[in-house]
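Predict structure. Chain length: 277.
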Amino acid sequence: MMWMMRMITPCMHTRTTIRITKTTGREIDLAKIIACVPYQEILIVVESGVQVTVYDSRVDAHAVSLFRSILIHVCENAHMTYIDRRHCAGDEFSLISIQADTNSTVLYQGLYTGAGTTKTTLNLILAGVGAQGDIRIGSVVKGKSCHVVNSMQRHDVSQTTSRCVVRSVVYDDACTNYDGIVHILPQVKKIVSHQFHKSLLMGDHACATARPKLEIFSHDVECGHGSAIGQLDDEQLLYLQCRGLRHIDARRLLIGAFFDDLYTDDLLLRAVGDVVF
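Prediction complete.
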């Protein structure tokens, strides 16, 4: 493994390049490599044949604004899992672009919490035949905070697959907004691409909106999208309470089940249990 870094004005701004080689079965913790500063630009290159899990965990108790730009290039036959756990007291704006080359796979799992405004733009570009991308984003939003997620799944070549799943639990006067696009270029065939969005509203003033969209300029594709926004099922709550659970425990159990099939990483599953009530 080789890390190459170049810092510019370290107290305010970093530009970092991380090139990952020969790391089959290895894990990388970005928090140990990159200092937390208000403005970050990060380039990650996962070289051909590498299998790696990247952990990006940020818990910031200071009410400051953060901007992050992350460009990830997953080369031919490489496999990357990216675990993104963030909790910020201030505002955070993130731009994440992932390019997947021939026969590569990408699994992105993110959990966003915090008191400020969080806006995440995630672009997945399937640039090589056989590339596969799986995006899974969850958020727990409380108080008067607002979380915005914009995603794009762009299929540049034939025989590529992508999926995007977004789920949020919204409390108090908070709000979430999701905009998603599946974009398939002309002459591109044998594409499988889907978007799924669900939001749970946990208060009378909680708000969620979603606008999934398909932009398909080719034939021989399998695409779909769907969205559902609602509240916890009263009958399910009553069923659990009749079997001895307190109301708050029944709520926690149902919310946990809402996220249960979203994540495969234990870190994120434990984090969900810590922030829901």
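Summary: The chain has one domain: 2-232.
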